[in-house]
Design goal:
The protein has 252 residues and is mainly β. It has two domains: 15-134, Sandwich (Immunoglobulin-like), CATH 2.60.40; 139-228, Immunoglobulins (Immunoglobulin-like), CATH 2.60.40.10. It contains no helices and 19 strands. It has strands at 3-8, 15-21, 25-28, 37-46, 53-59, 62-68, 74-75, 100-103, 111-119, 122-134, 139-147, 150-160, 164-170, 174-185, 191-200, 207-215, 220-228, 239-240, 243-251. Strands 1, 3, 5, 6, 7, 9 and 10 form a seven-stranded mixed sheet that branches. Strand 11 (139-147) and strand 12 (150-160) form a beta hairpin. It is elongated, with a radius of gyration of 25 Å. The two termini are 18 Å apart.
């Protein structure tokens, strides 16, 4: 999402707001130390030297940061725990404190960020969505049970953010039924989810089943593989198939 708004007071166009730098996605708990801080920047040019200049940052239309040229920047009290040390973005007086650095990433930072630049004659803004994925304390379970010539799959994920989407894949078997996903939002804002599927076994070869965890519109997947041992398949009424479990996370 990239939204731009322009409005004019009087007849002078004094601001050219080129872009804002807001990362599309930040993953918490994926062993990437670069995600410990989130840098926001607002790239603009002034066609003249206004007597008044203010830069404001909003999150979900709530002001979180303000800099008036000639003064020190200010952060609203409820957001101070998420703003790092105030440092100069530029040595140029009209750009000195235009950006800010977010720290202590959490799901509370998920939202739409807007940079508003104002002078006495002009006002422009741009906004971008910052998506937080939190896998720092999640767990996942993938079970499968042999019932005659079918394999019943159940995949559950606990304490993850944002709301996950569970789906199943197989290497060469036929997926004949998927049960609707059941999702619960927890008190901490994270989610639990569980889903199931039934697979038709077409042979006695080793089979591979995959549980996919996706997040709507985000380039981050979690895949769990279950491999059944061919010599352990027992076509009884109800038996647990020995498995090899692998977990992979994919960003693309």
């Amino acid at each position: 999402m990239n939204v731009k708004n322009e409005c004019m007071h009087g007849f002078a166009y004094s601001i050219s707001l080129h872009d804002i730098d807001v990362p599309h996605m930040v993953v918490i708990g994926d062993d990437d130390e670069s995600d410990d801080v989130i840098s926001l920047d607002c790239e603009y040019e002034l066609e003249d030297n206004p007597t008044y200049l203010v830069v404001k940052w909003f999150m979900n239309n709530n002001v979180i940061y303000q800099w008036i040229r000639g003064q020190k920047p200010s952060v609203v009290p409820f957001f101070r725990d998420h703003v790092g040390e105030i440092a100069e973005t530029s040595t140029e007086p009209n750009h000195q404190y235009r950006g800010l650095t977010l720290i202590n990433p959490s799901i509370e930072l998920d939202g739409v960020y807007k940079c508003l630049v104002q002078t006495e004659n002009d006002s422009k803004f741009r906004e971008e969505k910052l998506n937080i994925v939190d896998v720092s304390n999640f767990s996942i379970h993938f079970d499968h049970v042999q019932v005659q010539n079918e394999t019943h799959l159940e995949c559950s994920v606990h304490n993850i953010y944002p709301e996950p989407i569970i789906s199943f894949d197989t290497d060469d078997e036929e997926l004949i039924n998927e049960t609707p996903q059941n999702t619960t939002k927890l008190d901490n804002g994270h989610f639990d989810a569980i889903a199931g599927a039934v697979v038709q076994n077409i042979d006695e070869d080793e089979d591979k089943f995959i549980c996919n965890i996706k997040f709507n519109g985000l380039p981050y997947n979690i895949n769990v593989d279950v491999v059944s041992a061919a010599d352990s398949l027992i076509f009884s009424k109800l038996s647990i198939i020995p498995l090899i479990l692998t977990l992979s996370r994919i960003m693309f």
